[in-house]
Amino acid sequence: MTRWVDAARMAAGTLTTVPVPAPRVIDRQVAARAMLLAPLAAIPLAAVAGGIVWAGSAVGLSSLATAALALGAVALGSRGLHLDGLADTADGLGASYDRAKALDVMRRGDSGPTGVATLVLVLLVQVGALTAATPATAAAGVLIGRCTLSMACARGVPSARADGLGATVAGSVPRAAAVVVGLAAAGLAALLPGLPWWRGPLAVLLSYAVAGALLWRCTKRLGGVTGDVLGAAVEAAVATAFVALST
Fold first, then answer.
1. pLDDT bracket for residue 124 (50, 70, 90)
2. Burial, 90: exposed, middle or buried (Cβ in 10 Å; 0-12, 13-18, 19+)?
3. Which of 1, 10, 64, 136 is the most exposed, having the fewest neighbouring CB atoms within 10 Å of its CB?
4. Three-state secondary structure call for residue 173
């Protein structure tokens, strides 16, 4: 039970701004469980996104402004962690075919033109899709993106570096557990109100496919995943889920 408490603290403390005590121990087992708990840790962010979409509709706010506010709130509630990872990953992939140079570009933290352009384009897709979202689909998209973290950290997925967040969580999640998370996400998504039963599972499948394709590309180019790559995968999955769930 103590390890699960530490995992919950790690998940919430890493993925959100929710104030929680620091984990007493962080090891491979705790890291794996934290990635499995990532969707649960993101429930407050999902609730905020859904609440803003509901409130915007209730007061007659434009759908574009509502979508932007919802995404801004989620970004604020996650410290912009995944958006930063998306920009850094794009810069690294666009910088050089030399693995060491690409990883060095990603480590610097400043965003170049490739990263900025990618960030803008993905956010435009997310905002555009959210303009047609319901509170339930807005919340679901946020959670589906975090579900893919267990796949991204499944055993067999290497770390591109020997240190950092990616090295701590990469390859830590048992594959069976990652599959269970994906199936649970698909099952719960089938219950989304106002949509055909198959629409939610399809959104989960497409989100996993897009995140998986990005992970495959990064593994080939960088030799594995980093914390930035994990963030990029989340944002790509969220964008895909929003598009697939938009009404």
1. very high
2. buried
3. 1
4. strand
